[in-house]
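DUF3199 family protein, pasting as requested.
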Amino acid sequence: MYITPKDVKEYSEFRAVQNRPDPKLEKDILRAETEIFAYCGHKFDNATKYPNGPPEEVKLAFILLAEYYALIAANESLAKGFKSEKIGGYSYSIGDNPMNKPSFISMLSAYVQTAGMAKRKVDFRMRGL
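Structure tokens follow.
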């Protein structure tokens, strides 16, 4: 992992993230890193190109995405997509703005590698009957 639970907790303003146990935050970080590695097409493990690890923009993208996953996991209502919930005589509503995944495309656009990736093309063949 290129970032730590401490990095995510220090960045986040959300108590749910700050109070999340480190082992669970590590899983959120793993999810974030996996998604960003897939998007960029590499794992930033080239010591020649990245001698100090991933650039700061990439680390920030890891943190933002890990924070998002931690918030979703910590709030069962968000994970299920509820806008309101009623339990006995108690009810609450969440605002109309659903939590959106942070956009990291602009931060990572300079680090996307397409060379060496499998070309994705579709072959379509038809045969007359």
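Note for the archive: The first helix runs from residue 5 to 11.
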